[in-house]
Amino acid sequence: MSAFAVDPTVPRASATDIAVALQDPGFGRYFVDHMAQATWSAADGWHDKALLATGPLSLHPAVSGLHYGQQIFEGLKAYRHADDSVWMFRPEKNAARFAHSAARMQMPALPTEDFIESVTKVVQLNLDWVPQAEGEQSLYLRPFMFASEIQIGVKASDYYTYICLGMPVMPFYPQPLTLWVSPTYSRSMAGGTGDAKCGGNYGASMIAEAEAHRNGCTQVLWLDSATRSWVEEGGTMNFLVITESGELVTPELNGRILAGITRDSLLTLAESHGLRPVERPLAFAELCEGITSGRITEVLACGTAAVVSPVVGIKSPEIDLTVGDGTPGAKTLELRAHLTGIQFGTEPDIHGWMRRVG
Ligand code: PLP
Ligand code: COI
Questions:
Q1: Which of 169, 207, 313, 326 is most buried by a 10 A CB count?
Q2: Residues where N6-(pyridoxal phosphate)lysine occurs (predicted)?
Q3: What residue ranges of the chain are covered by domains with CATH 3.20.10.10?
């Protein structure tokens, strides 16, 4: 299998440009010099694998991904350690989830080795763009794939384009979260695409996010669409609670929830913080009752972009609940410190999650 070939003519940002970007990178405000790209066709499989200048694509307006939403993506990060080495966090989990999303969307799987090589090379060719560890900045990688056959007929495409972008980022949510439970909108349903990371899931959720913002909330807390009685996940994050009896509870993966890699990592770390990890259905009524009675002591949400974010309030047209005393929970902050410590190399990586890339 051929490797991703590096275009030697890609222009390089100056040290000054990079320094300016890293002063306030936001989330996707600046992009690194190279992006990985590959093409798939029914006739030739994956080919034309290359690292090119990050820049505009030339696309015929009839490519089917622009019309019918055959599109998937991933998100993972590379972290600089104090000794200047650079590491990725569990990239093989993202490769596997990308393949899972592809299967659901009737798209070709990108082989794991191609996924890993592409993300690794985007980092390795752009090491100057990987922020220093202070301030929790990192290099976010955004692999994605879309149907690129020129075709207005509705059918699975015979051509796909894969790209991986790199960008320096801050954590997505700098402040503790208040989540909005929409009375109207749903994210996923049985047999739908809830456990695939496809753009349509996000496009469909923006109206609820706008509703959340109008009501003073940061993001949405989704309930199941059939009964609106079970908690599923947050808009860009999985959802967890800590109970007074020492459980770290999160809704089980029921096919409608994204199998978050941060979620899996927190469940693994729970025991070292005196918490029992529990994956089970979580009723919205139990969540409300638990917050009100104090049986639920902490609420948190997690994801690659969101890291581990304390949830301090839950709102809907009927309720306005404050979690605990309205400040981030102690165990939540401990879990966040532990996870980011592993990622930035200040805590031992006993689970073998980090992959050195630079
Ligand atoms: N759920 C949704 C809907 C997301 O967009 C994300 C972010 O990727 C997550 C959960 C968390 O997944 P991960 O921890 O793998 O980033
Ligand atoms: C991530 O955490 O990687 C996400 O995909 C969330 C969001 C930026 C869409």
A1: 169
A2: 197
A3: 177-344
Q: Which residues pair with 141 in a beta bridge?
A: 76, 166
Q: What is the pTM of this model?
A: 0.97
Cα–Cα distance, 331 to 349 (Å, whole number)? 20
Structure tokens at 95: 């490769």
- What is the rounded CA–CA span in Å between residue 146 and residue 11? 26
The matching CATH number, chosen from 3.20.10.10, 1.10.20.10, 3.40.50.720, 3.40.50.150, for 177-344 is: 3.20.10.10
Ligand 2 pocket check for 305: Cβ under 6 Å? yes
Distance 304 CA to ligand 1 centre (A): 6
Please answer whether residues 329 and 75 qualify as being in contact, where contact means their C-beta atoms are separated by less than 8 angstroms: no
Per-residue pLDDT of the chain (358 residues; tens, 9 = 90+): 569 999 999 999 999 999 999 999 999 999 999 999 999 999 999 999 999 999 999 999 999 999 999 999 999 999 999 999 999 999 999 999 999 999 999 999 999 999 999 999 999 999 999 999 777 899 999 999 999 999 999 999 999 999 999 999 998 888 999 999 999 999 999 999 999 999 999 999 999 999 999 999 999 999 999 999 999 999 999 999 999 999 999 999 999 999 999 999 999 999 999 999 999 999 999 999 999 999 999 999 999 999 999 999 999 999 999 999 999 999 999 999 999 999 999 999 999 999 999 9
CB distance 260 to ligand 1 below 6 Å: yes
- Identify the CATH assignment for 5-169 out of 3.40.1000.10, 3.40.50.2000, 3.10.20.90, 3.30.470.10: 3.30.470.10
What's the rounded Cα separation, in Å, for the pair 175 and 163? 31
**Which residue out of 140, 236, 264 has the highest number of ligand 2 atoms within 8 Å of its CB and is therefore the one to mutate?**
236
Ligand 2 site, residue 235, Cβ cutoff 6 A = no
Domain with CATH 3.30.470.10 in the chain: 5-169
Distances (CA, A) of 171 to 27, 49, 136, 176: 8, 31, 7, 12
Ligand 1 contacts CB of residue 223 (under 6 A): no
